[in-house]
Amino acid sequence: MNVIITGASKGLGEAFAEKFAAAGHHLFLCARNEALLTETKNRLLEKYANCSIDVLAADISKKENAIAFGNFCLQFGTPQILINNAGSFLPGNIHEEKDGTFEAMIDTNLSSAYHLTRAVLPAMMQAKRGHIFNMCSIASLAAYKNGGSYSISKFALLGFSKNLREELKPYNIKVTAVMPGAVYTDSWSSSGVNPERLMQVDDVANMVYAASLLSPQACVEEIIMRPQLGDL
């Protein structure tokens, strides 16, 4: 099975890659940092000899790069799973955040998923199968202090997911919006928060992988996950 994962060099993206590599799938991984991406590829290939991995280092917040990565993946056949995981977080309140923050959040968190999805959808629609996971956030559901343009982009990504879900029902293509709360990744490592207070990347990866295994008749439309003690 061909599996596309963006933002795959670390954090949640790397956890997704590990889960699908362990199952022996053909992975197509993308991230901006070529060194980290290659390191992830080599580690997974050494650990899981039955999988295959192709990588392309690219900044898919740029439309042309997102489309190019989609075309790169299509050279190897039609993808069955697409995980739009690439994203970043810039904190701030709308009235005072630095100029350009809005554009950066929309390009990275929304446009990358939009353009990559559109690049691979024709092949998936022709095959009449597939599953698209969009990594939204708890920030897609409720406004919070210092969320600013990040929250706007995640609300929009959830809207994108909902529209896509309706459009693709006749083509047997599933769409799942994944909305995790705080997960212990690099962005939290220097925060001073006890890691035991947060979810682990494997928690989210396990849920996504489980949703991908359901019968063609079943679609998990939304996955909402929070730390047991609630949001931070």
Automatic annotation (TrEMBL):
<dbReference type="InterPro" id="IPR020904">
    <property type="entry name" value="Sc_DH/Rdtase_CS"/>
</dbReference>
<protein>
    <submittedName>
        <fullName>Short-chain dehydrogenase</fullName>
    </submittedName>
</protein>
<dbReference type="GO" id="GO:0016491">
    <property type="term" value="F:oxidoreductase activity"/>
</dbReference>
<comment type="similarity">
    <text>Belongs to the short-chain dehydrogenases/reductases (SDR) family.</text>
</comment>
<keyword id="KW-0560">Oxidoreductase</keyword>
<dbReference type="InterPro" id="IPR036291">
    <property type="entry name" value="NAD(P)-bd_dom_sf"/>
</dbReference>
<dbReference type="Pfam" id="PF00106">
    <property type="entry name" value="adh_short"/>
</dbReference>
<dbReference type="InterPro" id="IPR002347">
    <property type="entry name" value="SDR_fam"/>
</dbReference>
